[in-house]
Amino acid sequence: METLLTFLELMGNLIRGVLRLDPAVYEAALETSIAGFLSLFILFLAGMSDTIGNSVVLFANRVPRRRFLLAIFVEALTFVVGVLLWAGSIWLMAGLIFDAWQPYYYVVRVVALGYAPLLFGFLILLPYLGNIIFVILRIWMLLAVLVGVSVDYGFGLLPALVCTVLGWFLLTLLTRLPFLRLERIDDFLWRFSTGRSLELDAQEAVALYIEEVRSQASNEGGS
Question: Which of 3, 74, 81, 194 has minimal CB crowding within 10 Å?
């Protein structure tokens, strides 16, 4: 029990420090061995929260309740993998552009911690305020990642911005290469987690629902 309380206290301190954009928290995370696991755990929780915030897509696709939690879990894991790849592209850009080569797992720690603001991602579900909260959280997260990268490499914020933005462009370019066929992986994960063969976004699902209602009303009227 004491170990668990210590674990939760350390995680809480890390989260509060990141939310304050405190560089000292990143420095402590780089010097503490358990911080590597904690940063990934925080990242996974942030992915879960952000997925819940965007779960309107799951509702729109009428995902069965028994598969709802599985879909959120799979989406959170996919979220984590995407962040790890982004950390790799940042690591590569820092090395190629600034000849600064830090251990990859250091970059993972600070980038993963930078996603702590998305622990509030579930608030995106709030009506009227959801879109505003979405933008605020993304800006907050980007600033937290920039602070982490600058601490890790001893950069100013501008070189950190160059590495993170170019890293994002590199990752986006690579994921769009046709021979990788990442869309097939996305389709497989969607079918596996939701049991649905086709993913519709919220607008498409609403349009389909309206069409079904009209069709049903027309059939009842005709009969």
Answer: 3
| pLDDT of amino acid 24 | 95
Q: What number of CA atoms fall less than 13 Å from residue 219's CA on the CB side?
A: 6
Q: Which of 81, 63, 85 is nearest to 72 (CA)?
A: 63
Cα gap 98→105, rounded to integer Å: 18
Which pLDDT score, from 0 to 100, does residue 50 have? 92
pLDDT (tens digit, 9 = 90+) per residue, 124-150?
A: 988 888 889 999 999 999 999 999 999
* d(C-alpha 169, C-alpha 167), whole Å: 5
How far apart are alpha carbons 190 and 79 in whole angstroms? 13
User: Where are the chain's structural domains?
Assistant: 2-222
Tell me the C-alpha distance between 23 and 79, whole Å. 25
- Model confidence at 222, pLDDT cuts 50, 70, 90, reads low
| Triad 91, 32, 117: Cα angle to 5° | 65
**pLDDT band with cut points at 50, 70 and 90 for residue 94:** very high
Per DSSP (E only), the strands in 10-167 are: none
Of 56, 83, 80, 79, nearest to 68 by C-alpha is 56
Q: How far apart are the first and last CA of the chain?
A: 67
